[in-house]
Amino acid sequence: MLDNYFNKLKEFSLFSQAEKDNLTKYITIKKVQKGNYILNSGEVCNHIYFLNQGFARQYYYKNGKEVTEWFAGKNEFCFSIESYFKDSPSKLLIETIEDSEVIYLHKEGLLGLSKSNIEIGQLAIKMFAKSLVLSQQRMESILFQSAKDRYVNLLERQPEIIQKVPLSYIASFLGITQETLSRIRAKLN
């Protein structure tokens, strides 16, 4: 069950069987039904989550409205960066869009082991670096791309999102209204 997970981690850092065994001590696997939360508002994010199966949406509330920040699909990671590093209650919610199997890697394991093990330290650095790069790319797309370009990029990079989530979530993720998204879609078809 963890083979897929460790294969994904190898993209960040190579590590031995002993290092895998050490990390495994800090791993929990949970089935999360559609519509339930991997992380709820107000909880402290003490894990990095990996979707072994399923699909999830990260969002928060702004002025009483849901604002979608990110989507995570099969073989992808997600977590609340601010809550994880500040040990503060999360404003971000991570909700499953479909029945999911989620691997929870506890912060104590990753950060604790990284202090004494260079390979796990490299794993942590590269995972966090990738998260920061993706966050910056998202921010740049909102700031510098047109709504149409953001939608086209989404179609090219993550086409599965279009089939899995309601248009209201996609519009929120793109930073536009659902009406604007409908107009963009009509022009492209």
Automatic annotation (TrEMBL):
* Annotated GO CC locations: cytosol
Please provide, alphabetically and separated by semicolons, the GO molecular function terms listed in this UniProt record.
DNA-binding transcription factor activity
Q: Which PROSITE patterns match?
A: CNMP_BINDING_3
Protein name (record):
CRP-like cAMP-binding protein
Output the Gene3D superfamilies linked to this UniProt entry. Answer: Jelly Rolls (2.60.120.10)
Ranges for domain Cyclic nucleotide-binding: 5-131
Q: Which InterPro entries does the protein's record reference?
A: cNMP-bd_dom, cNMP-bd_dom_sf, Env_Response_Regulators, RmlC-like_jellyroll
In terms of Pfam families, this protein maps to:
cNMP_binding
